[in-house]
Specification:
The complex is a heterodimer of chains A (328) and B (321).
Chain A (H helix, E strand, L loop, with lengths): L1 E14 L2 E14 L3 E5 L6 H9 L6 E10 L2 E2 L5 H7 L4 E4 L13 H12 L4 H14 L5 H6 L7 H13 L5 E5 L7 H18 L2 E6 L2 H7 L2 E6 L2 E7 H7 L2 E2 L1 H8 L40 H5 L5 E4 L2 E3 L5 E2 L5
Helix pairs in contact in A: 3-4, 3-6, 4-6, 6-7
Chain B lengths: L1 H28 L4 H5 L8 H12 L5 H13 L5 E2 L4 E2 H36 L4 H15 L2 H15 L15 H39 L2 H8 L4 H30 L2 H6 L5 H10 L3 H29 L7
Antiparallel strand pairs in B: 1-2
The chains are: A alpha/beta (328), B mainly alpha (321).
Subcellular location (chain A): Cell membrane
Keywords (chain A): ATP-binding, Cell membrane, Membrane, Nucleotide-binding, Transport
InterPro entries (chain A): AAA+_ATPase, ABC_Ni/Peptide_Import, ABC_transporter-like_ATP-bd, ABC_transporter-like_CS, Oligopep_ABC_C, P-loop_NTPase
């Protein structure tokens, strides 16, 4: 069953220079208990899509069009008060920066207990016990000590574990992980990813995993959505993207071929996608990727392609999907 | 913490000692002779003798070093010396004004802090709104206009034009207790308002900036993502962090409780410490001036010390060792 469904979502920033279309017609869905990996370059709108789900907006930001359904209920129309009941309870978030995402002047206990007392109606004592339990669950070796600590006394990896414990405290149905390991060392990153997979198996929480790292996607995700310029350009089960599918989006191909591999020879140049993401205030006409696409034709530059089904659960926004391993 | 406290207090002793030498030296360097100013008038033929006698009574006939040592020695016994202006002990001269000053500044502190915290927080939360812009302009004016000007404006409006309040001075003697207290407060309103406006202008901006800084931090977004209400986020998560820079300014203002403000007290003829100090300076009242200044120094050092300790209380990252 679909836990979360986003239909034609448009989230814009109203700035002095004009509307910035951070999310420009995103449609995607997350199945119960599955992990959706959202991948894309910086500025592709992946974080803004995630923030739209909980309406964690800046003052000048709002949803202009489209809807978000959670458990079959439209939540994109809810008031701030109603959203507060969902945040941290049904849907919670872990952020990229563990070093700065915890309040420096409150203890871990206070920060975890807070959600429990707010959403589950626990009293202080119960919340504290539960907080220690949560820290145990995220494999913190000395949960009692950590529970009493302030964030500055913990390392980055530990803080991210605390963030995860806090996010999972109320047993949410959906966990949004916004590049949760980007700021961590590679070894810590591996530990955290492993932990998240274990917790997912234990709790059955669905995860929206945002990253720009395809390697991480391969490790974490069941399904993948590739984003470019505020749009989903391809969505498919993870194996389709990495191996099975005959056709893929040229942008996905670009992302895949730009990963260094073990058999890449010394001195051999990596394939890179030429150019850079267009400025959000000067988006190209037609296909947004056309200016950087080596397969682009006149049609691509004039008309905008729709997201089209090309296989089971596999959709691509492209007139001419690339045959894998084809004319390279 | 205890070790730190003891260490800090001990380290204050040499500081006070050195500053006392500087203060004494500077005050002695002032031109003018308190003894001469003390014996003005009278018969000219006894003038020299009277100056000599005054000098002796003030202890100014000895050499500078002896004067200093005696002064410090007396201070240790709580003896602040004799005022040449009032011809009585400094202790007695400052007792009443000290009370008046603390009284005045107590209200200023309560109002300026209370208003600036409320307004500062709201301005930061509603940055760019009419509310914010109004108070920003207010603060700009309050910070650029001199104190005496604000005082004179208030006198002009509320005392001279509207006639609601006394323009300056202290309550008259010989009133019944009830009338005396009413009169006291009526005299208090304008100086309190003047000082509050001036204090408020700066403190408010300080609170606002501290809050703005905190509100843009990642952990505020985390707090929102947890489903906390705006109220909890602003007044608990954010303000608790903004408190750290705000504490410094608050503590220095507590020091101000005692220091009095020369200008406002003079404009309103409020018999406070600042008023007395100005009079003392005009009369070259050595012991009054030097003892009062040393008192200010001690107050200042103590409030700094309290600020340091308060840091450790509001910010767990600060450890005092």
């Amino acid at each position: 069953m679909k836990l979360l469904e986003i239909n034609n979502l448009h989230t814009y920033f109203d700035t002095k220079k004009g509307l910035i279309k951070a999310v420009n017609g995103v449609s995607l869905s997350i199945e119960e208990g599955r992990t959706l990996g959202v991948v894309g370059e910086s500025g592709s709108g992946k974080s803004q899509t995630a923030m739209s789900i909980l309406k964690l907006f800046e003052n000048n930001q709002k949803i202009y069009e489209g809807e978000i359904k959670f458990e079959g209920k439209v939540i994109s129309e809810l008031s701030e008060k109603e959203m507060q009941k969902i945040r941290g309870n049904d849907i919670s978030v872990i952020f990229q920066e563990p070093m700065t995402s915890l309040n420096p002047v409150f203890t871990v206990n206070r920060q975890i207990s807070e959600v429990l007392m707010l959403h589950q109606g626990l009293n202080k004592k119960e919340a504290e016990a539960r907080s220690i339990e949560m820290l145990k669950q995220v494999k913190i070796a000395n949960p009692e000590t950590v529970n009493k600590s302030y964030p500055f006394q913990l390392s980055g990896g530990m803080r991210q574990r605390v963030m995860i414990a806090m996010a999972l405290a109320c047993k949410p149905k959906l966990l949004i992980a916004d590049e949760p390991t980007t700021a961590l060392d590679v070894t810590i990153q591996a530990q955290i990813l492993k932990l998240m997979n274990e917790l997912k198996a234990e709790t059955g929480t669905a995860i929206m995993f945002i990253t720009h790292d395809l390697g991480v996607i391969n490790q974490m995700a069941d399904d993948v959505a590739v984003m470019y310029c505020g749009q989903v350009v391809e969505t498919a089960p993870v194996d389709n993207i990495f191996m099975d599918s005959e056709y893929i989006h040229p942008y996905t191909e670009g992302l895949l071929t730009s990963i260094p591999r073990l058999n890449t020879k010394r001195g051999e140049k990596l394939d890179v996608i030429p150019g850079s993401v267009p400025h959000p205030l000067a988006l190209p006409q037609g296909c947004k990727f056309a200016p950087r696409c080596k397969y682009a034709t006149e049609k691509c530059r004039n008309e905008e392609p729709e997201l089209k089904e090309i296989g089971p659960n596999h959709q691509i926004r492209c007139f001419f999907p690339v045959k894998r391993g084809g004319n390279k | 913490m205890l070790r730190y406290t003891v260490k800090r207090i001990l380290s204050l002793i040499p500081v006070v000692f050195i500053i006392s030498i500087m203060l004494f030296g500077l005050t002695k360097l002032m031109p003018g002779d308190p003894a001469k100013l003390m014996v003005q008038g009278g018969r000219p033929e006894t003038y020299d003798a009277r100056v000599e006698a005054a000098r002796k009574s003030l202890g100014l006939d000895q050499d500078v070093v002896t004067q200093y040592v005696k002064w410090m020695g007396n201070l240790a016994h709580g003896d602040l010396g004799v005022s040449s202006t009032y011809q009585t002990e400094v202790k007695n001269v400052v007792a009443e004004p000290l009370k008046n000053t603390v009284f005045l500044n107590f209200f200023v502190l309560i109002f300026s802090l209370g208003i600036s915290i409320l307004v500062g927080i709201r301005s930061a939360v509603k940055k760019g709104s009419f509310f914010d812009q109004f108070w920003q302009v207010f603060s700009l004016i309050g910070m650029s206009v001199p104190t005496f000007f604000v005082g004179l404006c208030l006198i002009f409006i509320f005392a001279f034009k509207l006639g609601w309040l006394p323009s300056f001075g202290m309550p008259e003697q010989g009133l019944s207790t009830g009338a005396y207290i009413t009169s006291w407060f009526r005299h208090l309103i304008l100086p309190v308002t003047t000082l509050t406006v001036i204090q408020l202008a700066g403190t408010m901006r300080y609170v606002r900036n501290a809050m703005l800084e905190v509100l843009s931090q990642d952990f505020i977004r985390t707090a929102r993502s947890k489903g906390l209400s705006q109220k909890v986020i602003v007044y608990s998560h954010a303000f608790r962090n903004a408190l750290i820079p705000v504490v410094t300014i608050v503590i220095t203002q507590i020091g101000m409780l005692f220091s009095g403000s020369m200008i406002t007290e003079t404009v309103f003829q409020w018999n406070g410490l600042g008023f007395i100090l100005l009079k003392g300076l005009q009369k070259r009242d050595l012991w009054l001036v030097v003892s009062m200044n040393l008192f200010y120094v001690v107050i200042y050092l103590i409030s700094n010390f309290i600020a340091d300790i308060t840091y450790a209380l509001v910010d767990p990252r600060v450890k005092l060792d």
